[in-house]
């Protein structure tokens, strides 16, 4: 039996090897295209058939290799067309050591479709890059500068990612975008050299923008963020810098994540507040909204806003209770609400002015963190079909305070007969849904997946601060 078993096992191994050997070269090169080029080259020692197979792989992916390796790989590369060319240069090397212009020319001559340059130092980009007719996806990281004039034409480009790049002037970004007639996806992160960030395109469908404050730089300009993208269906904005934000019509938009964390001194608080509220009003056609506001909105500007969200079914809100009241009043089809009351400056809860039965007629799920019990009371008393409410209480509450808090809310009147009431400690609440963003390709990604370093500033060691620190360490221990 043992001999028979060993013989059968050997046959299975041989059969597996034969199956791999029988695969056509096109399949094997496709498999190798998922590897970095240095790993693809290493397969040449497997067998005679594999010796030059890597040279036919339509992908060249270099990550920190030296100049000699890259030059030799390009010299021996045989395939006539390069689908993907990725170049990540090590920051320990001077950019003078790398013939970037020559390598870029090589990719363009091979009719490259996907080009990813991550240089880790600010280096001038070859101008021929901006006239490549075959590019479909272009990603630039830590390089520049994006030109403000001259020959720029990318007729096939559909995806453009600009991360920590330099711009010759404010006109550089709109000039580049206008030269991409079929652009559908635009991602801009860590804008460093623009005063006015102007994004205008009739074709963009997915837009991600980070316009953030850097504590190590001084700012004295009137920073502006302007968006004119009528075909947009997904929007992700992180704005911590602009004094004015505005947008054209967004009638096609269905999902958005908007984070405004601007705590800097404004030239005019009223004008700034009004621009933020008018921008939010532009999102009126949306179905799913995540709104994170940690900025001062003056009451006088708020009273003039007219927010209307008749298509909104899911709302994740990190803001003061004025926004919660407004959304409950204007979003009549809301079904799911996640609410985290901003603790910076607590605003007194004001009930919506319209009849509550009509406002909350579809609300089924609520999760909220607030110190204002009147908000909880109002929702329980008026949500007619509410199925579940999760009330999150503060981690700093002692046992007696927590007991009183739970007893008081449990005694509130419930309009819905099927409503379940649950209580969760803030440290145990899974509020990832408030921070998680969706990529344009539909996949979701939590920021803490790649978190390596956490810096806590202005910590004095209070009980509450220590509890938060313990929570952060516990939730991120696997990746820190």
Write the layout of secondary structure elements.
Blueprint: H1 2-21, H2 25-32, H3 37-42, E1 59-63, H4 67-76, E2 84-88, H5 100-109, E3 114-118, E4 137-141, E5 159-163, H6 172-178, E6 185-189, E7 196-200, E8 206-211, E9 224-228, E10 234-239, E11 244-247, E12 255-260, H7 269-281, E13 288-293, H8 299-302, E14 314-319, H9 321-330, E15 336-341, H10 356-359, E16 365-369, H11 373-382, E17 388-393, H12 399-410, E18 420-425, E19 437-438, E20 444-445, H13 463-476
Describe it for me?
27% of the residues lie in helices and 21% in strands. It has 480 residues and is an alpha/beta fold. Among the domains are: 122 residues, no CATH class; 35 residues, no CATH class. A 15-stranded parallel sheet has the order 1-2-3-4-5-6-8-10-12-13-14-15-16-17-18, with helices on one face. Strand 2, helix 5 and strand 3 form a beta-alpha-beta unit. The two termini are 51 Å apart. The N terminus is likely disordered.
List keywords for this structure.
single chain, alpha/beta, 15-stranded parallel sheet, three-stranded parallel sheet, 13 helices, 21% strand, elongated, disordered N terminus
């Amino acid at each position: 039996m043992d001999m028979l078993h060993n013989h059968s096992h050997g046959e299975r191994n041989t059969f597996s090897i034969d199956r791999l050997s029988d695969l056509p070269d096109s399949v094997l090169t496709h498999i190798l295209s998922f590897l970095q080029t240095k790993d693809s080259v290493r397969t040449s020692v497997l067998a005679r058939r594999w010796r030059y197979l890597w040279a036919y792989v339509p992908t060249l992916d270099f990550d920190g290799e030296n100049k000699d390796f890259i030059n030799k790989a390009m010299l021996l590369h045989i395939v006539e067309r390069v689908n993907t060319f990725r170049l990540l240069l090590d920051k320990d090397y001077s950019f003078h050591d790398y013939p970037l212009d020559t390598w870029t020319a090589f990719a363009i001559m091979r009719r490259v479709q996907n080009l990813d340059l991550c240089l880790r130092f600010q280096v001038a980009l070859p101008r021929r890059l901006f006239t490549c007719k075959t590019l479909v996806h272009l990603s630039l990281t830590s390089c520049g500068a994006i030109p403000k004039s001259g020959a720029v034409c990318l007729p096939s480009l559909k995806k453009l990612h600009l991360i920590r790049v330099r711009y010759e002037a404010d006109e550089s970004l709109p000039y580049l975008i206008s030269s991409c007639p079929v652009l559908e996806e635009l991602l801009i992160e860590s804008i460093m050299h623009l005063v006015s960030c102007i994004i205008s395109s009739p074709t963009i469908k997915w837009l991600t923008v980070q316009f953030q404050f850097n504590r190590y730089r001084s700012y004295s300009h009137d920073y502006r963020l302007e968006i004119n993208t009528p075909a947009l269906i997904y929007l992700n904005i992180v704005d911590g810098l602009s004094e004015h934000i505005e947008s054209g019509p967004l009638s096609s938009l269905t999902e958005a994540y908007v984070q405004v964390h601007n705590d800097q001194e404004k030239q005019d608080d009223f004008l700034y507040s009004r621009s933020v509220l008018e921008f939010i009003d532009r999102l009126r056609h949306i179905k799913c909204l995540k709104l994170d506001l940690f900025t001062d909105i003056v009451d006088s500007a708020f009273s003039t806003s007219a927010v209307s969200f008749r298509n909104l079914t899911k709302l994740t809100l990190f803001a003061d209770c004025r926004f919660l009241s407004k959304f409950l009043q204007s979003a009549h089809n809301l079904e799911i609400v996640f609410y985290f009351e901003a603790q910076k400056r607590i605003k007194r809860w004001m009930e919506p002015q319209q009849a509550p039965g009509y406002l909350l007629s579809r609300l089924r799920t609520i999760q909220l963190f607030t110190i204002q019990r009147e908000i909880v009371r109002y929702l329980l008393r008026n949500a007619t079909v509410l199925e579940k409410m999760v009330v999150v209480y503060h981690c700093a509450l002692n046992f007696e305070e927590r007991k009183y808090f739970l007893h008081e809310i449990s005694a509130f009147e419930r309009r819905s007969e099927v409503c379940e009431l649950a209580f969760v400690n803030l440290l145990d609440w899974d509020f990832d849904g408030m921070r998680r963003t969706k990529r344009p390709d539909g996949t979701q990604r939590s920021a803490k997946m790649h978190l390596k370093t956490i810096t806590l500033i202005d910590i004095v060691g209070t009980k509450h601060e220590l509890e938060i620190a313990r929570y952060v360490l516990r939730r991120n221990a696997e990746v820190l």
